[in-house]
Amino acid sequence: MVITQENKNFDVNFPIIIIGAGACGLCAALSANEQGINPLILERDKVPSGSSALSTCLIPAAGTKLQRDAGVNDTPENFANDIINKARNLNDPNMVKFITNESGPTVDWLIENDVPLNLITSFFYPGHSQYRMHGSPNRTGNELMEALLKKVSEQKIDLMTSALVSNIYINSKKSIKGVEITRPNGDKERVGCNILILACNGFGGNSNMVKKYIPEMADALYFGHTGNRGDAIKWGIEIGASISDIGSYQGHGAVTHPHGTLLFWGLMTQGGFQVNINGERFSNEVRGYSEQAVDVISQENSYVWEIWDSISHEIGMDFVDYRNGADLGAHKVANDIKQISSITKIPLEKLENTFEYVNHCIDNKIKDKFGRDWSNIKTMTKPYYFAKVTGALFHTQGGLDINSLAQVLDKSGKPFPNLFAGGGAARGLSGPSRWGYLSGNGLLTAVVLGKIAGQNAAKKIIGNDC
Ligand SMILES: Cc1cc2nc3c(=O)[nH]c(=O)nc-3n(C[C@H](O)[C@H](O)[C@H](O)COP(=O)(O)OP(=O)(O)OC[C@H]3O[C@@H](n4cnc5c(N)ncnc54)[C@H](O)[C@@H]3O)c2cc1C
To answer: What integer pLDDT is reported at residue 218 of this predicted model?
Structure first.
């Protein structure tokens, strides 16, 4: 809730409060501290993790040192074009521009801050025209969070955990004055601030908001952090902030069922495909994993079978999620189509027809009936791997409108005096719907906007501008 009150006194004051200790909040804290302003981070969980820790830690960026070292000739303009094309020109071009411009310097900065990232050149992610995905050694957000938390601790930045921000205080000039924290035992504490940064992600963990804003995913599995309950957006609505693309989200069409492990989309871009329980393909899988979620859950029984080959399997072993799936028995192996049919109970003839059609497209280097281009794909190498998968909601993409300094805007486009937002709390780069998400848009806006918000908040404090 937002409480409007003039001249509210607080027991303790911080120049900057950051709500949320995911990738966005931690980057905001490090960049504010770099400017000489030590902020306070408030995190509802006992141990910070957020969706950032659940992620595969793939961060796209253009013009990084790693790309230059690998001879990859990429520019922010190329990257911006890819993001805009994916969102069919329906995202905010200014946001795309300043975020892609800052993407390379931000990834270089993360590496300078000891985040272990390398450039992935073993396959392209759908929609990316260059090798620009940067990932941690085991492709897990835990590695990102561990590295950021270590830096925050080394720099003695104040991080208060088990601190759910329940209310924010504002005055009649729409200036944020502080926050109220609710502790797990119900105790309340009130802390004042000069600037507030909202880094508490979107509303994926709030089923009522999902039902209201994204009804097509109301019954889908939510695979993100359950503590992300839309608080930033709810506060934004109360204070009259401008909010865009509220129905937009990132889904994923390959969460193993019932094991609940993630299959990375390189399995598809390398030549894998999905079939329903009748052995029929039903979509162009390589458009992107986000839009595939709805296609998967709309199949009979809300699950399908994903099939890939042994070369993709080798690439997959770089991913901790993939290895977990293999260890849990989510992935099956077969030497021929007959064996796949006998395990999946998909009629053999149907499955053979589908393989035959795919091989026909590969051999003739043509597009299939769904528009998928097979011209650069090699015939699958045995053994075949396959898994039962369902679609899931990963995170929401709509949120608070911001300017290039990450300041939250009101409905007239004017920034609030001392309110910033980033990551999943802010509007994303994916346009209005599920199909606009280009792989990596999530962490991209978390780390870039976190860094921008922290830096500009600190500059405002230093310049006595709040
Ligand atoms: C399985 C999975 C895989 C993904 N893989 C990728 C990937 O490889 N690349 C990519 O770009 N994106 C990926 N994403 C998306 C990415 O994880 C998110 O976009 C990103 O982590 C958002 O960062 P954030 O800091 O905004 O939010 P979070 O990391 O979720 O952090 C928000 C924090 O705020 C806290 N919080 C919430 N409300 C309050 C409150 N009221 N008071 C105090 N604290 C609060 C939460 O507890 C949480 O710790 C993936 C998502 C999922 C679910």
So the answer is: 95
